[in-house]
Amino acid sequence: MKIDAINFTNIIINIAGTIEDNLDYLTELDTEIGDGDHGINMAKGFKRIKEKLSEADILDIGETLILSGKVLLNEIGGAMGPLYGGGLIKAGVALKGKNTIYKNDIYTLFSSLLESVKSLGGARVGDKTMVDTLEPFVVEYRRQSEGNETVDSFREALAKAKEGMESTRDMISKVGRSSRLLERSKGHIDVGAASSYLILESFYNSLKSIMDQQDN
Ligand code: ADP
Ligand code: MG
Known about the structure:
Layout: E1 3-4, H1 5-21, H2 23-33, H3 38-55, H4 61-75, H5 80-94, E2 100-101, H6 103-121, H7 131-145, H8 150-167, H9 191-215
Antiparallel strand pairs: 1-2
Helix pairs in contact: 1-3, 1-9, 2-3, 3-4, 4-5, 5-6, 6-7, 7-8, 7-9, 8-9
The structure holds adenosine-5'-diphosphate (ADP) and magnesium ion.
Adenosine-5'-diphosphate binds at residues 30, 34-35, 37-38, 41, 78-80, 83, 117, 121-123, 129-131, 175-177, 190-193.
């Protein structure tokens, strides 16, 4: 399957909608073991991204990612600004100039995001962060995409991302604000792991509808 620049902008706009719909859920998670700002920051950031994308001239897919990353990096507070922002910029640089992307480019996108988050934040799987969602996703997507179609690969990888997100419930936080709580950080899903999962799930739903359009 192929994703053109208009499809890709719609994927980002759908993610913005998903984040908006889940603002209360993310706020609740970040209130349990954080400072409660993650949902608000994410919703604000993606709303700005939507505005900027609608003002911009036609962008290629790399440029769309770079614009989105810059909004998060420059305009949004909390750990997520630099982590998601830097990650989207890195993914955008990797996909610069592309007006159409395919199965392997989706791997490039999410592996670049993951590598950027890991190198900036220093977190590893098991530290109770967004890495616990993103890394199992990237590993499984790579494995699946060797023999399967894009949407099928994504669906299987999304299942691993969900397991990863849920595994953060029993972890003790090792990095970021919630690490100050030590043992008390146990018993709650990490909010960054949750927002990463929501982003992936929304991406998947968009891929399914793009594929349905291409089939008809
Ligand atoms: P803050 O903790 O500054 O309020 P947010 O609430 O926006 O930031 O985001 C918190 C989330 O950011 C955490 O749940 C975690 O998933 C992620 N996070 C924080 N620090 C790191 C890090 N060093 N590496 C990876 N992810 C991190
Ligand atoms: Mg917070």
